[in-house]
Amino acid sequence: MNFIDRITRLPRAHDPVDGQEALAAMPDLPEPLSDLIAGAGGSSPFLKSLILREGDWLRSAFDDPEAALERLFSELHEVPAEALGDALRQGKRRVALLTGLADLAGVWPLEVVTGRLTDFADLACDLALKAAVGAEIRRGKLPGMGEADIATAGGMVVLAMGKMGAHELNYSSDIDLICLFDETRFAPDDYHEARASFVRATRKMAAMLNDRTAEGYVFRTDLRLRPDPSVTPVCLAMAAAESYYESLGRTWERAAYIKARPCAGDIAAGLRFLAALKPFVWRKHLDFAAIEDAHNMRLAIREHKGLGGTLSLLGHNMKLGRGGIREIEFFTQTRQLIAGGRDPDLRLRGTVEGLAALAQKGWVPDEAAEVLTDNYRFHREVEHRLQMLRDAQTHVLPNSGEEFDRLAAFMGRESDDLRAALLRRLNAVHDLIEGFFKPEEASDASDAAEALDGEVIARWPTYPALRSARAVEIFRRLKPDILARLARTSNPNEALLAFDGFMAGLPAGVQVFSLFEANPHLIDLLVDIVGTAPALAAHLSRNAGVFDAVIAGDFFAPWPGQAALEAELSARLGPEVDYEHALDALRRWRKEWHFRIGVHHLRGLCDAEAAAAQYADLARAVITGVWPLVIEQFSAKHGAPPGRGAVVLGMGSLGASRLNAGSDLDLIVIYDAGDVEASDGRRPLAARPYYARLTQAMITALTAPMAEGRLYEVDMRLRPSGNQGPVATSWPSFQEYQETDAWVWEHLALTRAQVITGEPGLARDVEAFRQSLMRDKGAPEAVLAQLVEMRGRIASAKAPAGPWDAKLGPGRLMELELIAQAGTLMAGQAARDVASGFDGGVAIGWLDDGDRDALAHAYAICWRVQMVARLISDKPLDPGLMGEGGAAFLLRETGQEDLAELEARLEGVSKTAAGVIDAALERLPKKV
């Protein structure tokens, strides 16, 4: 279907007679096109002048406008440099004319209209740049460059910013450009000469595009978005620009780079520069502080342009005024800045595309995105019609009723209808966005403050979190709401002290306070945490970025399982550029999930059993993720692992899939080099030192205190020969040691061993061998004798911290787990969990059903107490210090009415379990 047939909507000329001159320039047109040309010529001086100058070309373009533009672009590539300026001006006229008519006729939607105008701007910049750089090269002014380098402009790139970067140019847009050059293509001694040459080329390019001649101009060109434009040259070295943004870049510059796009010259170099700039633009944590920056920018623009005050349609600025285009762009870009660091899917240049992505990811309500998208399209249409009517760069609505009538007619509307639509739409945008950028002031909380300890509140201004004026201003708005929420807790001053601890540990406040202001429900969560789990609150003050997970994902969704964790971690680590960045990303990811488990447990969304399994899933996912990273990093220097490779065994609580909030990891590494004596790399190593150093590298990856903290503490003492043995054990040595030299306690430890990651074949062999050992090494006399000795040694070496110590003491966790391991080993079972161990003891006649139930009951109570204790504090549990929130959490988890009842219950079940253990150690199983 051709252009003529696709015309479905025609503009109405304000005065059809005015269009006769344009129509006369193009006689013998089909009726729909005659109406279109007459209407456009009668209403738009802009289009009329273009029709008069380019009517012949336009006639040839009607059959296939897309092909006509392709021919035009192709022909411009063949224009010699001396004629390029005039050719570009003619090309701009033709593109604008054809695009304008397709726009008016409803043939092309907004995105196609702005896209075609932008495509031509890209071409014009590229051709003008290469002509200017080519002249420098031919004059010998660009050191080391020849004719072949003109194709990449000698390493210079033009970044399209703003509307051009987003493919959103209008008919009279300026183009905002940043010009850079790749200094690495030049020897150090040639740097200054090259920079001077690129500065000259930039000025010539800008002049070719910007200067008015008898043929008009191509684009008004603005180079002032570059770093510090008052003192820097018009073309900068990429290294200098990157250094500026890293040290001095501001939020408005971050927002500008959302739309940045290399459009001319060395595109590959431009893409590398933008990739290097990602950490500046896209912050690793949710960046709610950008909201206030954007709000301040909006206010500054209004004040500078005199656009504040009430909304009046006459003379209203559709771009910068209330409810205008810039407001929608700021709204979109601010939300992108907040979350784009965590979600690359939000890093889109176009406003409409950005709103759609934000709505899809839940950052903008669907209804709000629809309202803003619809009004953005409408605002842009009005902007385009204004520019066509006035043949000028304008965004201002008419100042007179007559001119308003003309605009309405040009848009095919009644004047009153257009006025009503504009008022409705501008107010809708303003109301929606103002609520986002300017949160309501919290209600007065003087009554709440009176109920709280004023001395505690008075010391907050001395804390590091409130050392900046900006943090103080945001916190001033938050403080009444925070105090009110603290006052509503069951013990306000206790909660206040806990919140005070959070504030005292917070190194900076702007980001966190901005986060709370944009998401008030997080204050409730924080108050809940600080009032219940001070250790978790202290962790939060040092790692407030973990709140990101609450906002940015399915934080309260059901547990996804280890496989889903591994897949998510793999996706998170994929974009990281080097080993250290990957380890820091892994630490951030682990903290978020660890925090999630703690909050779910704290709020009763999962119980102690589920939380224990989730902590274990997380640890296994971390080890599964870090192991290949370590191997890849180590192999780059020393070659691939010799032989079959290695496996990582989880021991203790990790092997049994029962970790708590503060658990360290018991690990063993087993390798099988086979007959391979050494690795094959740049610096080859013999098999034994290779695997020893590889294992040490893994331990370092897990335990090193990097910028994002550490992952886990690691204990390797359960390996053969403990701390005296090699840090990694060969597969043959491991088998021989376990068969002939291992102590009974080491076989007991293997009852909970589990391969976490590594070479699959070796993993199967290790597990088969473990099960074989379980069947062969469970001689009751030896096991029980060792058990008695171990119990006595533990009792003499580690005294309980008090009656609330759930781990140490008669009938407590450590003893109960030893009994379960003994039951598993003597029964020759493969199971790793405690319950199966007790069942094994019953199966061999060592325990009876009553013994098992008593032990299981004691274990359940002790485990729940231990899980709560490790979450709410890093110190031994002390009911006098845990506060009301902590006590309520502990009682809910254990099902008791009060602490005295729980203490008695804990003492009673432990005493009963200790009696069962005493008796069991005095007898042999009835059958094995």
Q: What features would you describe in this structure?
A:
The protein is mainly alpha-helical and 928 residues long. Helices cover 60% and strands 5% of the residues. It folds into five domains: 1-108, no CATH class; 145-281, 2-Layer Sandwich (Beta Polymerase, domain 2), CATH 3.30.460.10; 288-437, Nucleotidyltransferases  domain 2 (Four Helix Bundle (Hemerythrin (Met), subunit A), Up-down Bundle); 610-776, Beta Polymerase, domain 2, CATH 3.30.460.10; 778-922, Nucleotidyltransferases  domain 2 (Four Helix Bundle (Hemerythrin (Met), subunit A), Up-down Bundle). It has 40 helices and ten strands. The strands form two sheets. Strands 1, 2, 3, 4 and 5 form a five-stranded mixed sheet that branches. Strands 6, 7, 8, 9 and 10 form a five-stranded mixed sheet that branches.
Give me some keywords for this one.
single chain; 928 residues; mainly alpha; Beta Polymerase, domain 2; Four Helix Bundle (Hemerythrin (Met), subunit A); 5 domains; five-stranded mixed β-sheet; 10 strands; 60% helix; 5% strand; transferase; PII_UdlTrfase/GS_AdlTrfase; nucleotide-binding
Could you say what the CATH topology of the largest domain is called? Beta Polymerase, domain 2
For the record, give the distance between the C-alpha atoms at the N and C termini, rounded to a whole number: 87 Å
Report helical residue fraction: 55-70%
Q: What is the 3D form?
A: elongated
> What's the total helix number?
40
Q: Supply the number of structural domains.
A: 5
Keywords: ATP-binding, Ligase, Magnesium, Multifunctional enzyme, Nucleotide-binding, Nucleotidyltransferase, Transferase
Domain PII-uridylyltransferase/Glutamine-synthetase adenylyltransferase: 302-436
InterPro entries: GlnE, GlnE_rpt_dom, NT_sf, PII_UdlTrfase/GS_AdlTrfase
Protein name: Glutamate-ammonia-ligase adenylyltransferase
